[in-house]
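Field log, afternoon session.

UNIT: design team B
ACTIVITY: writing a sequence onto a fixed backbone
BACKBONE:
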């Protein structure tokens, strides 16, 4: 059996290996047992029922909550040569009859339906006439009121086990909270089902939190790094999404809004545009997401603070489904917390209100945490995570965010000002007083008479906001739950005022500076070919009226653009290319590769995983000192002697500066002729190792001298150019 399962995996899906748990789940279903599957987004849940469906007689019924999702899934299955259809309200009566007729004639392996249709009496009668081999309930958390997407129709799905007790049922969700899980098992009568729980870690997602100051500028910087890549920016309010989308359009981005207040047509049009790569950015409320099957979402930004970690996990989870690196950026401010508290306090149910507050506290705890974010997030789902550094979060990978900053004087000012206004005002007002503002509220309350009035003028508004946020995180002040936003000094704060205790806070991380390593850029692929393959994919997608990723995921195109397959067999060796896809789209793809290799006679296959360049860190503090000496005209050696560091360290500093874009420094150190000469040597020997390049140069340029220093600089310059050109794509 296992043998043929592997063959089917390759044939239909083009994969040579199962992902964790997939094989066990498939086997369990084929043995007629029920299964409850907990897997993060991108974990590969669909295959767990699609593969059994492909190898079984009879029909697999898939219950799926969103119509847009159904079409995509069905398109993907048909593209892979597995016949499937959906039955929902978008069909005309005639189409419906025709598809139902086909189903009765045994023409489909899978039928997708919405829950409301399934529970309808005449539809049940129809189902009694087809041979069901499996029932799959996707997004099973919709059954739970505790979940984030409760759907009343899901409740009725309890009839599945009552009506078809002997047909195996698989329920799947990416929601990891135990309350929701228990609910699903109970509601679907799955008491005895085996639970398959995968790790909820998403190693390819990189987490980062920035203070919410100048957030629009920060966002623009961030988006500029992701030019031509797709992503979602979540906002709290509907208005927020529209305003942000407009502001981004004015900056030249292709951005559209999405929220439940848009008309149905506009909503599905916008979703479609995003899905088909026609726009890059969706500014959305949390109404956007469940129907998004798009695999190449490269980033998810939370422009406002989410209500809880379950939601944050779900929303960020929509990034990087294809397994390639993706970034999750959260803007955090305490005033967002106050805003959310206002909503929470409007809740009428006491228990729910208390629960919501706790959840918000956990969310804030995540935003403020100093240890690994990934570990913090997984801990919320009771999963222990101990790897440090993790595969990517600001706290693990950016040491500057750990740098301490002495704010004793500011803390004293802030705390005493809070006491001066009798702990009756919010942070904004306190800051206004400290900065000597003449706004009406300050005047009305005669707060311009206070001794602390204007004492903190020298610090900007945003610096003060950051200090306040840090004092909160460190427990010197608290925000009153009952009276929103009112700041009180805690006993710890009082004590520190008395003792004039030293107060140290973290430096806010800087958006432009922090560059989380993204394995997708500068990766060894033939970029021009990749772009050409994307165009071809688009043409096929338009022709077949499907979303581009239905044809091939980005990852597959990247592998092709690296491996340069020239035959159909070689193409089939690429992960993600099954027999059917190789047959259907292979010719166009192979032609493109052939053209490319004809035009570039020297183009060689690149092992996909090997990065083109080794990694070069960001400039350390000492680098700027080194630079100041070099700028004064010192040689590398003189700079080393003056600062008392080795020349090797000076070279390292310079390398870092060049890789970060210090072109002037580079030009000063490397004359253009030598640059060209050595660059050619790199091109012929590869960019990973310096020794072969140096040997090559010495061999080919008799008598000339070459040093490793220059090679370092040239490679760093190339790294910078590669990263800045990938930004301006
Ligand atoms: P989920 O429904 O759990 O979010 P999907 O079923 O959409 O995840 O799968 C996520 C991605 O992983 C898809 O691009 C899918 O093609 C890919 N995938 C699934 N199983 C495998 C596998 N065994 N090997 C390689 N890729 C896989
Ligand atoms: Zn981490």
């Amino acid at each position: 059996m296992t043998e043929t399962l592997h063959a089917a995996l390759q044939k239909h899906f083009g994969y040579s290996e199962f992902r964790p748990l997939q094989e066990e789940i498939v086997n369990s279903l084929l043995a007629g047992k029920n299964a409850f599957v907990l897997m993060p987004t991108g974990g590969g849940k669909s295959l767990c029922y699609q593969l059994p469906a492909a190898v079984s007689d009879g029909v697999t019924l898939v219950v799926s909550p969103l119509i847009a999702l159904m079409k995509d899934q069905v398109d993907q299955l048909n593209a892979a040569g597995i016949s499937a259809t959906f039955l929902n309200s978008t069909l005309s009566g005639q189409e419906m009859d025709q598809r139902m007729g086909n189903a009765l004639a045994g023409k489909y392996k899978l039928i997708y339906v919405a829950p409301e249709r399934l529970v309808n009496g005449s539809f049940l009668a129809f189902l009694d006439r087809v041979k069901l081999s499996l029932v799959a309930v996707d997004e099973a958390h919709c059954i739970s009121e505790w979940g984030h997407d409760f759907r009343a129709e899901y409740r009725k799905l309890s009839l599945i086990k009552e009506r078809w007790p002997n047909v195996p049922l698989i329920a799947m969700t990416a929601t990891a909270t135990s309350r929701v899980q228990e609910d699903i098992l109970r509601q679907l009568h799955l008491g005895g089902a085996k639970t398959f729980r995968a790790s909820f870690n998403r190693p390819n997602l990189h987490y980062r939190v920035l203070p919410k100051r100048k957030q629009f500028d920060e966002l623009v910087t961030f988006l500029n790094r992701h030019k031509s890549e797709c992503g979602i920016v979540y906002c709290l309010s509907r208005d927020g999404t529209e305003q942000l989308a407009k502001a981004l359009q004015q900056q030249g981005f292709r951005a559209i809004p999405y929220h439940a207040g848009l008309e149905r047509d506009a909503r599905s049009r916008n979703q479609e545009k995003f899905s088909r790569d026609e726009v890059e950015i969706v500014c959305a409320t949390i109404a956007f997401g469940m129907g998004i099957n798009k695999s190449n979402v490269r980033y998810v930004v939370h422009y406002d603070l989410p209500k809880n970690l379950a939601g944050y996990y779900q929303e960020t989870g929509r990034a990087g489904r294809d397994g390639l690196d993706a970034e999750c950026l959260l803007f955090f401010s305490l005033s967002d917390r106050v805003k959310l508290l206002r909503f929470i306090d409007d809740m009428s149910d006491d228990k729910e209100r208390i629960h919501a507050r706790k959840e918000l506290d956990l969310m804030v705890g995540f935003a403020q945490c100093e240890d690994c974010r990934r570990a913090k997030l997984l801990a919320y789902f009771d999963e222990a995570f101990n790897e440090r550094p993790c595969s990517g979060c600001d706290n693990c990978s950016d040491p500057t965010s750990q740098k301490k900053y002495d704010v004793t004087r500011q803390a004293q000012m802030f705390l005493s000002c809070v006491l001066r206004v009798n702990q009756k005002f919010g942070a904004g007002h306190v800051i206004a007083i400290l900065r000597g503002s003449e706004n009406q509220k300050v005047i009305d309350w005669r707060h311009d008479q206070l001794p602390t009035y204007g004492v903190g003028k020298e610090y900007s508004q945003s610096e003060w906001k950051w200090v306040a946020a840090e004092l909160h995180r460190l427990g010197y002040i608290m925000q009153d739950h009952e009276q929103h936003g009112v700041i009180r000094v805690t006993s710890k704060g009082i004590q520190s005022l008395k003792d004039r205790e030293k107060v140290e806070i973290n430096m806010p991380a800087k958006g432009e500076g922090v560059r989380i390593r993204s394995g997708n850029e500068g990766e060894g692929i033939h970029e021009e070919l990749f772009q050409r393959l994307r165009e071809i994919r688009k043409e096929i997608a338009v022709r077949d009226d499907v979303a581009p990723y239905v044809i091939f995921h980005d990852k597959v195109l990247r592998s092709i653009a690296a491996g340069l397959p020239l035959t159909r067999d070689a193409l089939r060796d690429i992960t993600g290319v099954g027999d059917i896809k190789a047959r259907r789209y292979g010719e166009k793809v192979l032609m493109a590769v052939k053209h490319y290799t004809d035009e570039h006679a020297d183009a060689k296959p690149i092992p996909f995983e090997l990065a083109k360049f080794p990694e070069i860190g960001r400039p350390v503090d000492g680098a700027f000192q080194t630079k100041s000496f070099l700028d004064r005209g010192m040689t590398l050696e003189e700079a080393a002697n003056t600062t008392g560091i080795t020349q090797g360290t000076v070279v390292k500093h310079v390398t870092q500066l060049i890789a970060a874009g210090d072109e002037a420094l580079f030009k000063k150190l490397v004359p253009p002729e030598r640059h060209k000469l050595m660059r050619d040597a790199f091109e012929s020997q590869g960019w990973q190792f310096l020794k072969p390049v140096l040997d090559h140069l010495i061999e080919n340029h008799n008598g000339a001298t070459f040093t490793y220093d220059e090679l370092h600089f040239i490679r760093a310059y190339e790294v910078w150019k590669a990263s800045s050109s990938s930004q301006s794509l």
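LOG NOTE: The pocket of zinc ion (ligand 2) is lined by residues 372-374, 389-390, 393, 395-396 (CB under 6 Å).
NEXT ACTIVITY: expression trials, pending approval
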